[in-house]
């Protein structure tokens, strides 16, 4: 009898992840305002003009031309503004189904209706984001070839550009809320970026190809990117790393508010709040960047240290022990682990029968 009971119990346990996974589905991305010319690439790289009202899911890329912007509204309530001359991919966007998710009314949500996993890849250019209060179980990251930003309910900016042949520059700004930035080659934990601050990092660049992706020799992983070799692991190459922290100046914050006002359908109160914050910010000539300590990857360029081994000329970065693994490596295995964690949470909800008549989002 005990053997039979154990067999039945194991069978039930084996079925629960299936029930939970069914509740975690592809989220929707709705195109809001489009100014100028922008292109949408589907997962097979077939392109079409990006138009307001278009709805797509994970795996799609958006490319803007000069003087063009595109507003992407996610079904978890967040908004992403793709700035001119940018290439952005919605690599992963999965969320737990909820009756609170209503097509065409995503920006009316005052907070995220259910847990989600969001991974945006910025191959070049800049994005400005507005994220409503996220579910504690959610993961929202912006990935670049140099590093990754982990977002929690906030207004933020992430910009990436190439520097030479094998390096890039990442700038992560936090206008409001909470952001953590991790630079791959720094070999250190995430650095907290407080409201009104921005972190700048110049470091070796790596491929932004999805884990397990093996492009043909000589092929590019995304339009406009450098070629990558098939099967190359996502590890940071050797090279120098320079990271600094500084206040966001008045003009920079004001520009964020102006972009939100002119390029999105968000309530005017949001851009007005950003502009009010800009008026309290220092001007560019009043700002002095502070170096953020990181282990050097080149033995020929040593760092001055104190007796305890910490760098003498820079503050120690704040490491958040609860940061998801995906913010330190950006790898697919870490993302799978995050999805698994959310699925486990959903499983508990399913067991307690607390999920309210969900309507699928795909």
Short synopsis of the structure:
The chain has helices at 2-23, 250-263, 268-278, 326-329, 332-352; strands spanning 24-26, 29-35, 38-41, 47-49, 55-56, 61-64, 69-74, 79-82, 87-96, 116-131, 139-143, 147-163, 167-183, 191-193, 197-204, 242-247, 290-291. With 362 residues, the chain is α+β, with helices and mostly antiparallel strands. It has a domain at 26-210 and 239-247 and 318-352: Jelly Rolls.
Please state the average pLDDT score. Answer: 77
CATH topology of the domain at 26-210 and 239-247 and 318-352: Jelly Rolls
Quaternary organization: single chain
Our count of helices gives 5
Helix/sheet category: alpha+beta
Q: What amount of the residues lies in strands?
A: 25-35%
- Regarding CATH, which class of the domain at 26-210 and 239-247 and 318-352? Mainly Beta
Any idea what the radius of gyration is?
Answer: 21 Å
Low confidence ranges: 11-22, 214-237, 295-332, 350-362
Number of strands: 17
Q: Ends: how far apart?
A: 44 Å
Level of helix content? 10-25%
Q: What does the overall shape look like?
A: globular
Largest sheet: 17 strands, mixed
Order of helices and strands: HEEEEEEEEEEEEEEEEHHEHH
The CATH architecture of the domain at 26-210 and 239-247 and 318-352 is Sandwich
If you had to describe this structure to a student in words, what would you say it looks like?
This protein has 362 residues and is an alpha+beta fold. It has a domain at 26-210 and 239-247 and 318-352: Sandwich (Jelly Rolls). The chain contains five helices and 17 strands. It has helices spanning 2-23, 250-263, 268-278, 326-329, 332-352, and strands at residues 24-26, 29-35, 38-41, 47-49, 55-56, 61-64, 69-74, 79-82, 87-96, 116-131, 139-143, 147-163, 167-183, 191-193, 197-204, 242-247, 290-291. It has a 17-stranded mixed sheet that branches. The protein starts with a helix and ends in a 10-residue tail after the last helix.
């Amino acid at each position: 009898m005990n053997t039979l009971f154990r067999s039945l119990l194991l069978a039930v346990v084996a079925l629960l992840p299936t029930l939970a996974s069914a509740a975690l589905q592809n989220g929707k991305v709705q195109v809001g305002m489009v100014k100028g010319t922008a292109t949408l690439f589907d997962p097979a790289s077939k392109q079409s003009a990006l138009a307001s009202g278009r709805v797509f899911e994970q795996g799609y890329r958006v490319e803007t031309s000069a003087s063009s912007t595109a507003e992407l509204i996610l079904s978890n309530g967040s908004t992403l503004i793709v700035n001119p001359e940018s290439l952005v991919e919605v690599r992963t966007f999965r969320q737990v189904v909820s009756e609170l998710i209503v097509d065409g009314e995503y920006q009316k949500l005052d907070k995220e209706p259910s847990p989600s996993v969001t991974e945006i890849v910025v191959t070049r250019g800049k994005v400005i984001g507005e994220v409503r209060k996220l579910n504690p179980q959610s993961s929202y990251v912006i990935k670049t070839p140099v590093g990754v930003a982990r977002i929690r309910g906030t207004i933020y900016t992430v910009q990436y550009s190439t520097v030479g042949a094998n390096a890039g520059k990442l700038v992560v700004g936090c206008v409001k809320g909470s952001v953590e930035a991790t630079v791959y080659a720094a070999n250190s934990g995430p650095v907290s970026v407080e409201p009104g601050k921005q972190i700048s990092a110049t470091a070796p660049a790596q491929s932004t190809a999805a884990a397990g992706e093996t492009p043909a020799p000589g092929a590019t992983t995304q339009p406009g990117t450098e070629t990558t070799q098939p099967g190359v692991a996502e590890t940071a190459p050797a090279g120098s790393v320079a990271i600094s922290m500084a206040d966001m100046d008045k003009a920079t914050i004001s520009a964020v508010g102006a972009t939100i006002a002119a390029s999105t359908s968000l309530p005017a109160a949001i851009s007005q709040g950003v502009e009010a914050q800009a008026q309290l910010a220092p001007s560019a000539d009043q700002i002095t960047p502070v170096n953020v300590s990181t282990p050097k990857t080149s033995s020929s360029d040593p760092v001055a240290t104190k007796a305890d081994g910490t760098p003498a000329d820079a503050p120690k970065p704040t490491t958040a022990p609860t940061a998801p693994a995906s913010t330190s490596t950006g790898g697919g295995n870490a993302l799978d682990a995050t999805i698994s964690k959310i699925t486990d949470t959903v499983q508990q909800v399913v067991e307690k029968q607390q999920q309210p008549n969900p309507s699928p989002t795909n």
